[in-house]
Amino acid sequence: MGVATAPMPNDIPLREAPDHFFDPVRWREFVAAFGGDREEALTALRPEPGLLAYYREEAANRGDPRAAQVGKQAALAQALVSDFVRSLQSGALAATALTPPSLARTPVPPELWPDIRLDFAAESATWGATSLTHIRIARAEDAHAPSLVTRCAAFLRGRQAAGEARKKILSHEARAELGDALTTRDFDTAYKEVFAKKRGRPRRSE
After folding, report:
1. Looking at residue 198, what is its pLDDT?
2. Average pLDDT over residues 96-113
3. The last residue of a domain, from among 106, 125, 143
4. Does residue 73 sit in the same domain as residue 19?
5. Same domain, 56 and 132
6. Given this model, what pLDDT does residue 144 score?
7. Are residues 61 and 96 in the same domain?
8. Does residue 15 contact residue 38 with C-beta atoms inside 8 Å?
9. Are 60 and 134 in the same domain?
10. Is the Cα torsion angle 30, 36, 38, 43 positive or negative in sign?
11. Residue 88 near residue 100, CB atoms below 8 Å
12. What is the per-residue pLDDT for 148?
């Protein structure tokens, strides 16, 4: 699957991807076909077994209205997923996943996507005999963007050069600079990276 990487910044779980990366009009139409039940719609995005599709098509050809309706839903699901896969294959979107038993998160190569069977509801997929789990998706530009920790550390180095080291003050300044998406954990990680010393805390730290 490639070289292990840290989780991509600004990525989202696969089950949330339709809300961000599907055509919004067609996705709303698809969910509406299930009475607005998004969970049921996610489940219906799974690839339809070939034998089941065959019998459904036969029933639709005999004039079964229910089979015809299910056929329309299946066709829309296929179109939505195909568009999504094309974005992954082209590199417009990027994905990482776990491949049990490994716990290392790795990128999914774009060229594999035509042969991968996605399960949005379970945030998983299969590629031949290989299982992909905990799949996360990001826009390509976000996948390569600096993480909040990296950006915070760069900001703190600038403030350090200006002579400021007080953690409480820097915490407020960092959030004002980077926004509320910066978590306490992110700030603490960046602060430790910039100000950590072999002995104790910075002298002016509060």
Report:
1. 43
2. 90
3. 143
4. yes
5. yes
6. 57
7. yes
8. no
9. yes
10. negative
11. no
12. 75
